[in-house]
Amino acid sequence: MLLAISATGLFSSCAKIVDFKKHHPGIDAHSCRIQKFFLRYYDASGVPGGTRELDVAYDKKGRPVSITPVREPYIYYVTRFAYDDYNRLIDYRLDGVGGPNPTDSVFIYEHRYSYGLYDRIIDTSYQLSQDFPAAISTLWLDTAGRVVNSGLFYNAAGNMVRYDDITGDPNYIFVYDNKVNWRQLSKTWQLIDFNYSVNNATNALDLNRIVGYNIYGLPLEFRQKTTGNNGMLFNAAYRYDVLDIQYACDPGPGPGGHGY
User: Fold this and answer.
1) Number of domains in the chain
2) What is the domain extent for residue 41?
3) DSSP per position, the chain
């Protein structure tokens, strides 16, 4: 049975992240916030297909408010976030922008979060500019305030495990490093990705591997073993073969700038 906890404290995006501070005393998580994502693609023969550069913007409280592509032609996608007075995420949406009229904007999907009882969040989702909900879901929380839907739970090390692990299917078995999970930098990243793990996960089959860390132990690059946009950032909002992350505390030269 879940015990009573304060939802207000759990979802404060402006709070310093506990696990990051534990391993890096004196470092404010916001000084290491993510500035950019770089998504690289390759065709079936391994030929580079281009790079998408995504800028992350924050408000004065250090909460992510948008993810916007740089130099994207014609039609592109923008992710937007909104918060309530308690710093809790209440709106997460992906918009398609551009087309024949450069000012056109339609939402691809939207999640509206409401809070009440201590052990759940109500997620009302919409799709393709429809004004009626596509689904209304309950996101169940454990006693640490982590979403545990879809067969998720967390081990003693604070890392996510799936019940599928019991079957021994290596596609669902996570192998963790001993470094800082980049989602620890914001409660927003944790909620929209349903990932509160302390460390970074790879796959038992080495289908997704980490290439390099910065001086604070934050991952710089994730690389898929096979091409075809198999990597997913934020529940498939963005797909990639190679994902590079640039942090404010350790700005890099861009994709491929880590010696690879």
Assistant:
1) 1
2) 12-247
3) -PPP--HHHHT-TTSPPHHHHHHSTT--GGGG-EEEEEEEEE-TTS-EEEEEEEEEEE-TTS-EEEEEEES--SEEEEEEEEE-TTS-EEEEEEEEEESSSTT-EEEEEEEEEEE-STTEEEEEEEETT-SS-SEEEEEEB-TTS-B-TTTEEE-TTS-EEEGGGGGT-GGG-EEE-SS--GGGG-HHHHHHHT---SS-EEETT-SEEE--B-TTS-B-EEEESS-SS-EEETTTTEEESEEEEEETTB--SSTTTT--
